[in-house]
Amino acid sequence: MSANVVPREVAASDTLTVTVNGRAVTVPRLLPDWQGHPATPTMLQACAAAGVTVPHYCYHHRLPIAGNCRMCLVEYGLPALGPDRQPLKNPDGSFIINRSPRPAIACATPVAPGMEIYTETPTVKAMRESVLEFLLVNHPLDCPICDQAGECKLQEYSVEYGRAASRFVETKVHKPKQVDLGPRIMLDDERCILCSRCIRFTRDLVGDDALGIVNRGSYSTLSAYPGRAFDNNYTLNTVDICPVGALTSKDFRFQMRVWFLKETKSLCTSCGTGCNILIGSRENVVYRYTPRENDAVNRSWLCDFGRLNYKWIGRADRLKEVRVRGQTVTWARALPEIADRLKAAAPGHVALIASARLSNEELYLLRKLAQHIGAVTDTVPRAGDSDRLLVHADKNPNSTGARVLGLAADPAGSNLPVFTERIRAGTITSLLVFGEDLTRHDFDAETLGRLDLLVVSDILPNETTAHAHYVLPGCAHAEKRGSFTNVRGRVQRFFKAVEPPGDARPEVEFLSEIWERLTGKPTPAGLEALFNQMAAEVPAFQGLTWAALGDTGRDLASLPHAM
Amino acid sequence: MPAERRLILQYLDQPGYTPDLECYRRHGGYTVLRRALELKPRTLPDGKTVSPQEQLRQEVTTSGLRGRGGAGFSTGLKWSLVDRKSGKPIYLICNADESEPGTFKDKQILYKDPHQLLEGMILSSYANDAHLAFIYIRGEFVEGARILNRALAEARAAGLLGKNILGSGYDLEIHVHRGAGAYICGEETGLIESLEGKRPYPRIKPPYFPAVLGLYQCPTIVNNVETLCAVKHVIAMGGAEYAKLGTPNNTGTRIVCLSGRVRRPGYYEIEVGKVTLRELIFDPAFGGGLPEGRQLKAVIPGGVSAKVFRAGEKVKLKTRGADGREVEQEKDVLDLPYDFTTLIAAGSMSGSGAIIVLDDATDLVGALANISEFFAHESCGQCTPCREGSLWLAKALRRITGGGGRPEDADYLLHIADNIPGGRTICAFGDACAWPVQSFVSKFKDEFVARGKAGRAGQQQPTSA
After folding, report:
1. Count H helices, E strands: chain B?
2. Same domain, A338 and A450
3. Where is the domain boundary, A203, A229, A254?
4. Mean pLDDT calculated for residue range A78-93
5. Are the beta carbons of A133 and B377 separated by less than 8 Å?
């Protein structure tokens, strides 16, 4: 589009109007580009504003524009200009439109006031058909064995826009088919449609110039840089953005057909960033995590470590039984006993250690419990490496929740050595532990042995559960509902994907029971009511409701954001 | 009588003419540059001043010079689109990638008269406030790169290049950069990507117009070797005088490359539009006709990417008569003046000026197969239609020439080719690889259908399944 055809109309407003398939749509003059910088909207953005889908492969709203797949070609017209470079008008005031003889790619072409975009003309349909036919010329008929089936854009667009049969009768180009690109990625070069999304993501977003194309023309082949493995902590995002089954996850390869997966909105728990995920599960087995879009947290991405950190959920040695001094019992037997023992415990002589991996709601109930029985509390900090992308040094998903709910000491973990000392001194005789193996944090078996009462709730067996008087099996986050507060103070919800094993129960359930037995007072019925009560009682959560958290969460109003 | 008009080629084939600076100077070399560097700002009646650079650019615009690389885009207009307000450095690049099959004109200049190119480049760089220029030369011109580097060294030693050229205060450095065997590096944005050290994937326009976002995302001018030499002559004689050569909208001289089945293949410089295709092929001053006993069958008028003309083909053209009225004429393609506009109006183009003559002994299906192999090999692979379509066409033609043709193959080839050009690809390579197929098959359909019927596949009975 040359300078000659863009009308120089100076609009007083900060919007402009274009027409998409005959319907006028108004868009802001500037919209964020892939980096968030203001730029003139593209035809694709205008079509999206008009609710019109334009099929595309290489375009991704968070990547620089490539314009190579040619799937988003549309036809358009621009207002004709007079000799004064002002638009010519019909008697009724409408623009006189010059129809462009050449199509344009919607993803890269900026709109202009008065532009008309046509996405459903016979020519546009023919172009989409031809792009698909060209893509399928060398693409192998791998659908029956390809992981992408069911979430493959080539399949989807072929059904919607393609021909029923290709006319190709020559021999296909063959390329390497099981390329070990890196420790987590398998590449099938024949399936690759050379959209370059993976290259742009890895080079421009991760800053690792690891992928490129070798050879040329129809023999172009995606490859890692010769001699190097594709091994940064974000490689699996390329599997998400690959429109076809060229890049696949070694972990998920051949594990499950995607149309069988239930997708549950949840959160990653490997660090304090709280990336939004979907848990893909079937019949109570988790098969994969995939990222969920959240502009405020993880955009469209996940780190590889967090993405693959789900296998512990299905471990065979998960705690499945309620135990009292090593003996398996029922909840009905254990909970009343625990409540009685807590009633009898002397205030000031009880300590409660709550993991920062517990949800806000669980921590809220523990806070009430601790206040009621006069327990001193703390949490266990967990630190590690961070990067400038998603990974935070705080490896607990809910340190902020533990802090604002008053369970963490200041600094978090500073009470732990105090507890050890006081247990040895005999001034702490009861200890409640939720979700931590204290023997990894300077509590040795001997110290634990001095306690009159040791109640431990956890999900996997460890040295602490081995010494517990009462073991209460809890749930992984995938097995319950709740919310976490991330390091930046954003409260986000997660939902239940799979059933807990054996007798394991969500912590809010048995904590509510203990509370009711201890105090005679009820707790709100249902998680939503529990959250809303917490928001009413705890100043940090003021103004929030469970419903208002939505799919992308809400920030705690009272907390500064830089943490 | 049609005749050559040797302007750029005036000296380089004369006996004893050598590529060194001494020889160039003896023939008046670098006097135009000296005069141009001495130009003073001119004050107009309304008080505005016109800088020397603007004066030089104006001469080029007045001359009507059009690019000689293949697209024929107005040089004055190209130069006027350069973003001079961004504060970024402006670069000038000489496109010496000469790779259009049938073209061998730039090679003559690079190998025999490099200083003419340098003088044209220094003038063009000065006119556009560029202080760094590049010559991108195809990798296969190994000796040509050496010759250019020797010429550049001579120029530097003589104060014609580098700092304070000829005491004018103008600085310019020129570097030679060798390509590595890709036709797509002749595409201006593919060239720029290659110069930046990357794979030569042409850039999408918008937004990457070289005049605004070119080399290193700075305003850049890319001009052909012959175009830059023509600039020297425009400045030497003045734009108005240059515009008297040739024909309206098709001014000056250009070098045509004649090859194929003619008695005198070679390169000839003519006034644009003053000589017809017939004269170029048959006149003793040029091609001298076909060998004894041969008849003309087809002419490719502008490099293999141009649409082919069939011998005897007639085209209807609208021309303006002497009385100013528009008349429609039917003309035999051979009687078309060899220029930019008429050949485009006739449904082809003069492209790089390469005229390939095919006679009645030529297997046209084989010729098209040969051309398609070239495009399949040279496709950069960036965008879908060209990447898949170019090899698909080549494979189909391999099958057809190998005896596996089918009666429906003519339509099959057209179907593939019709889905590549016309804005469906990132760059004009898509048009270049599709046009030969579209034109050969539609204008010589009888040959393709016959080949299809004679093929093994064509002779099989269709199955009932």
Report:
1. 18, 15
2. yes
3. A254
4. 90
5. no
